[in-house]
Design a protein that fits this description.
- The complex is a heterotrimer of chains A (about 300), B (about 500) and C (about 325).
- With about 500 residues, chain B is of the alpha/beta class.
- In chain B, about 35% of the residues lie in helices and about 25% in strands.
- In chain B, a hairpin with a 2-residue loop joins strand 4 and strand 5.
- The two termini of chain C are about 20 Å apart.
- The chains are: A mainly alpha (about 300), B alpha/beta (about 500), C mainly alpha (about 325).
- At the A-C interface, helix 6, helix 12 and helix 14 of A face helix 5, helix 11, helix 13 and helix 14 of C.
Chain lengths: ~300, ~500, ~325
């Protein structure tokens, strides 16, 4: 594979951290290193992983998307309400994905054509989605649609969707001109423009893609919990960003790998699993550990960039 | 193909009467330029001459207010860089406009990737890139990251990309600035080969040796005007340098010389100061009331030397003595505490603080020296500002006007005022008269004369040799980032400076 | 070039319009009464509840003026609230001591952010993200994951008490404003902040201590957020590590930008920030008093952010102006 030929220190560091975490955990807990635990890891974190795929594309393009957590809350409430009104499950899913994609496209258009800061626009998007979700329903809504129940109880659907979208993302990133354009725009926007790439269109599309990924994440989260809650996915945008950064995506844009993001998601998941295995450790250590990892990888990126600067 | 043959070759590109204005400045004033097929044509000129504006007009970045561009007899109007590329005009800049994180092949095919069954055919892309680079004698793995290669290789990738897009005109904008001698030679080899293939190459470089080594013709610009088009074979270095630097004969000004320097001991002694890749071996002394000039072409190391003296960059060799004591200038703040001042060449990006007022800009350095706690009272700031607005003739309705809205000359005076307000004993002026109107130039010169009389030591950098001669007691000449001469007394004279800058035997 | 109006003028106009609409639509909005020696009424409410945002937004103004941003405000609020609640429940510490420690915590966290930005040269958004992510974890670690409630009269008086009839939070916010205004305008700190944000290279070459100035801005932001944390936990008489100050950084940024300080750095206006914070709270209070469900506040804020951004966008103005000229 081409991508492994590139010298990319951070991704290897991520892999090392993941292997260390899993090895450490399996030495300590007998049943940790099993296929079931791994599958559960994927299943429990599929919604985060899906959102993180979109976020990785956005960050690689040089932007940021803070609306993904709110999207998950919105999609859950939206689907639940539709289905309570008698809309069939598949239609609810299709509508949620369409709205999510369009919403992302709208934010992307504002960012691309009016040069608004991505951070502020997606922040507004986050408020808007959370607010709309709360307007639809303040209460958590139960989902008893048979399709959702069937998909939710399967232990293969969520991991399957995650892996499928991941592979699709890899294809898009590495084997389609769109993907290469995203890397070029994030790597050097001025150059991309001079090389004749449709920079604005690419930017808008990237946010649409992220909207699609996070709304799919929301759908998967609804399978998983069989409910819609306006408050779910709180601070998930931070976890998604953290997963991307830990996975080697440069926050300044231009560099990133979806496999790295996968590793990042798995590391976050492993930390959580370990903490739940370890009865005495409390859940907030997750946040602190994520923060420390983030710091370490930002430091690593800084070194990586400094190395780049020395060889112009 | 030699110069004569090139002259008979068909015209590839013809610019006529190009005019481009920016607010307050005429960047290009009726400039003509002709490029023939199969020639290397160097565009020459100092800062502000209009070279980069002309290139930007040609490559669609700027649209001219007047004038026509014809490519092979057809009128063209490039609206964007992309347009220009599609027309066959490609540009390779010094800071290569590619994406360093992507691979060589990716950069080569970006935006026009070969597709096979719905996916990018990377094998084909790599093959094409390798083939195109091989034609330029570059052997690199097309799947390696572009950023991992030297700038020379990156430029070759950019050139290969341009050729692959059917470029007929290749603009090389200062491609050699960061290359070593061997890399320059191989670049020239490629340029000559492309010339044989009938490409028209527009070349920009600050290094005279290089320009003479590779060019068929020169077009010289000064202050936005065309001052000459000459065949390289019939041009001496001295003639070229004279055209670039200009010798506006002004009897009155030529006769004016600085008052003799007082015979005081030097306050500043600089020995063999240098920094790798910036400038080497600068040696000079400045006495109170004396002005020392740094002469040389753009890119000769003038600005780099000034930055070393002001602590903006750290030297890696040589020493500086201030009043006999050795000092290591660690930062601009340190230099400020030593009572140095520095008006940078790049007024917009390193000089003015555009949205702050004239008053705040003038008070900035003095305030920085006092520290943030001991704020200058508004009253003192106003007095200071008004004093300098009057003394320097800064044209502004009042001291509260944002500096960004003033004209270039007035901005320059504000920066000068900033340093004068900090009461320096040594002042570095890097191109203080660049890009400002004639009246302001004269005023700044007069002001410098006043400062000399008040005992201020100055280091003066200017591309206008007459100014240097009128202002300086002593001149250090730099060429290709190295000090190549030191003139004083009667030796400070334009002809002598020109000869030293031009170097070589044919002067 | 036509000089555009001072951006704060627009914000002020928006506030006046909002108040005027309330005057017409909400009876008693402008009624201010006295109960138990304390002023009450919708206007007092607006002032009272805008104080945490304002305190956070003051430092944010300086940070944004240096071309930075501080995303860790909410986390700092949670940590300082947790520390304060622990001190009064575990140690019965007097209020003065609690306040000193909280301010110390704010200084330390601000210094952390400032060092990452100014010494290590990490992009501000990225640097402050670290504390944003882990800060709530630290707060939960302190509170052991519990919501710590307290009855301590000292800490409770931070929100509950009043001076000369004015609720304490308003007085604290006013004092904070005065202090930052003195720092910004009576020393040269404010001018140097503007110089750094407007043209960092020029500031550096003029001898401005760029690193220290940036560090200072983050310190002020840290202290402001920590004091806001005291007020927030005093309002609820509890320290909730999960929800205290949630999204406060966003409100603070919105207040700053709506007030007329550009995200691109340079000139800042503290007065504009005050007006921006008041607009945010007036919107919320209006929504509440009009009986509109509270969940609409988020939607309204989102639309407000987008409008403010669009008005500041040159492309947008160019397009709108072009259309107007064509018509």
């Amino acid at each position: 594979m081409r991508m492994f030929r590139r010298s990319n220190l951070p991704v290897w560091a991520t892999l090392a951290v993941f292997v260390l975490a899993v090895t450490g955990a399996s030495l300590r807990y007998e049943h940790f290193f099993s296929f079931d635990v791994f599958l559960n890891l994927l299943r429990d974190n599929a919604f985060l992983g899906l959102a993180a795929i979109g976020v990785t594309f956005v960050i690689v393009s040089g932007g940021i998307d803070l609306s993904v957590g709110a999207m998950i809350g919105f999609v859950g409430v939206f689907c639940a309400t539709l289905m309570q009104a008698g809309v069939p499950g598949w239609l609810a899913i299709a509508l949620a994905l369409a709205i999510g994609t369009l919403f992302g496209l709208g934010m992307g258009a504002l960012i691309a054509w009016y040069s608004l800061p991505p951070f502020l626009v997606t922040l507004a998007g986050m408020f808007l989605l959370r607010g709309l979700a709360l307007v639809i329903s303040m209460e958590a809504l139960r989902i008893d649609d048979p399709l959702f129940e069937a998909l939710g109880h399967s232990k293969w659907v969520a991991p399957g969707l995650f892996v499928a979208v991941l592979l699709l993302g890899v294809y898009l990133a590495n084997f389609r001109p769109f993907g290469r354009a995203v890397y070029a725009v994030g790597g050097n926007e001025q150059s991309a423009l001079l090389m004749g790439l449709p920079v604005r269109r690419v930017k808008a599309q990237v946010y649409a893609l992220s909207g699609f990924c996070s709304s799919l994440g929301g759908v998967v989260f609804a399978f998983y919990t069989l409910s819609g809650n306006a408050n779910s996915g709180m601070t998930l945008e931070l976890d998604a960003i953290a997963a991307a950064v830990i996975g080697g995506t440069l926050l300044t844009g231009g560099v990133g790998h979806l496999f790295g993001t996968l590793l990042g998601v798995l590391i976050l998941g492993t930390i959580q699993t370990v903490i739940s295995f370890e009865g005495t450790l409390s859940s907030w250590w997750t946040r602190i550990a994520v923060g420390l990892l983030l710091l370490a990888f930002i430091g690593l990126q800084k070194l990586f960039q400094a190395g780049k600067a020395d060889t112009p | 193909m030699d110069g004569d043959a090139a002259r008979s070759a068909p015209e590839l590109l013809r610019l006529r009467g190009i005019r481009k204005e920016f607010p307050g400045v005429v960047a290009l004033d009726g400039v003509d330029f002709t490029l023939r097929a199969g020639e290397i044509h160097s565009l020459m000129g100092e800062n502000g001459a209009g070279k980069s504006t002309l290139i930007k007009v040609l490559t669609g970045v700027h649209q001219p207010e007047a004038g026509t561009i014809e490519l092979q007899g057809r009128r063209i109007r490039p609206r964007s860089a992309h347009d220009a590329v599609a027309l066959g005009i490609s540009t390779v800049y010094q800071e290569v406009n590619l994406v360093p994180y992507l691979t060589v092949a990716e950069n080569f095919v970006l935006g026009r990737e070969p597709l096979r069954r719905g996916r990018i055919d990377w094998r084909e892309a790599n093959r094409r890139a390798a083939e195109a680079l091989e034609r330029l004698d570059v052997c690199v793995d097309p799947a390696s990251t572009l950023g991992s290669h030297s700038l020379a290789v990156q430029q070759m990738v950019a050139i290969a990309r341009a050729l692959d897009q059917n470029a007929r005109v290749l603009v090389l904008d200062e491609p050699t600035s960061s290359l070593d001698a061997r890399e320059v030679e191989s670049l020239f080899g490629v340029m000559r080969r492309l010339r044989e293939e009938g490409l028209g190459i527009l070349f920009v470089s600050h290094f005279l040796d290089q320009v003479f080594a590779v060019s068929d013709r020169f077009t010289v610009l000064r202050n936005g005007r065309l001052v000459g088009e000459l065949p390289a074979a019939e041009t001496t270095r001295l003639r070229l340098v004279s055209l670039m630097l200009g010798r506006e004969v002004d009897e009155q000004s030529l006769s004016r010389r600085p008052d003799p320097a007082p015979g005081a001991p030097p306050m500043l002694e600089v020995r063999d100061l240098g920094r790798r890749g910036a400038v080497e071996g600068v040696t000079l002394e400045v006495r109170p009331g004396e002005t020392v000039g740094l002469a040389g072409l753009l890119g000769s190391g003038r600005t780099e030397a000034a930055r070393l003296l002001f602590g903006a960059d750290r030297p890696d060799r040589g020493e500086v003595r201030l009043e006999g004591r050795r000092v290591r200038i660690r930062s601009p703040r340190h230099a400020l505490r030593l009572r140095f001042g520095f008006c940078p060449e790049d007024r917009k990006s390193a000089g003015i603080v555009p949205s702050l007022s004239v008053r705040e800009n003038i008070a900035l350095a003095l305030q920085a020296r006092r520290g943030w706690l001991r704020r200058l009272s508004p009253k003192r700031q106003r007095e200071l500002a008004n004093r300098f607005i009057e003394a320097l003739g800064i044209a502004t309705p009042d001291a509260e006007k944002a500096v960004g809205t003033l004209s270039g000359g007035n901005q320059q005076k504000v920066i000068l005022a900033r340093w004068l307000a900090s009461e320096p004993r040594f002042l570095i002026l890097d191109e203080p008269t660049r890009g400002i109107d004639v009246g302001s130039k004269a005023e700044i010169e007069r002001l410098m004369a006043d400062l000399r009389r008040q005992g201020l030591g100055m280091l003066f950098i200017s591309s206008e040799l007459e100014e240097v001669v009128r202002a300086c007691h002593r001149v250090c000449v730099l060429r290709d980032r190295r000090q190549v001469g030191s003139l004083e007394g009667a030796g400070v004279e334009t002809g002598e400076i020109l000869r030293t800058i031009a170097g070589g035997g044919d002067a | 070039m036509r000089r555009s109006l001072h951006p704060t003028v627009w914000t002020l106009l928006a506030l006046v319009l909002l108040l005027a609409a309330n005057l017409a639509l909400t009876p008693g909005f402008f009624h201010v009464g006295v109960r138990d020696g304390r002023l009450y009424g919708s206007l007092i409410d607006v002032l009272n509840h805008s104080s945490p945002v304002l305190l956070a937004a003051l430092g944010m103004t300086l940070v944004i003026a240096t071309k930075g941003v501080d995303l860790s405000v909410g986390s700092v609020v949670a940590i300082s609230g947790a520390v304060a609640a622990l001190m009064v429940t575990k140690g019965q510490a007097p209020l003065a001591q609690v306040a000193m420690v909280a301010i110390g915590v704010g200084l330390a966290l601000g210094a952390w952010n400032g060092l990452l930005v100014s010494v290590l040269g990490i992009q501000p958004m990225v640097a402050t993200l670290v504390l944003m992510v882990s800060g709530r974890g630290i707060a939960q670690l302190l509170t052991d994951g519990q919501i710590i409630t307290f009855q301590d009269p000292g800490l409770a008086s931070v929100a509950g008490g009043s001076v000369w009839g004015m609720p304490n939070p308003v007085m604290v916010a006013a004092a904070g404003l005065a202090l930052v205004a003195v720092l910004a305008r009576w020393t040269a700190f404010g001018t140097m902040v503007e110089a750094v944000g407007d043209n960092e290279r020029a500031a550096l070459l003029s001898g401005v201590p760029v690193r220290w100035i940036k560090l200072g801005a983050y310190l002020v932001a840290g202290v402001g957020s920590a004091v806001a944390g005291l007020i927030v936990c005093s309002f609820t008489k509890a320290a909730d590590a999960n929800n205290a100050g949630l999204y406060l950084e966003l409100d603070a940024i919105l207040a700053v930008v709506a007030g007329g300080t550009a995200m691109t750095g340079g000139r800042f206006t503290l007065l504009g920030t005050v007006v921006g914070a008041l607009i945010l709270q007036t919107l919320t209070t209006t929504i509440l008093t009009k009986g509109v469900p509270v969940q609409w506040t988020l939607v309204v804020k989102a639309v407000a952010v987008l409008l403010v951004c669009l008005l500041q966008s040159e492309e947008f103005r160019a397009k709108v102006l072009a259309r107007r000229a064509a018509a």
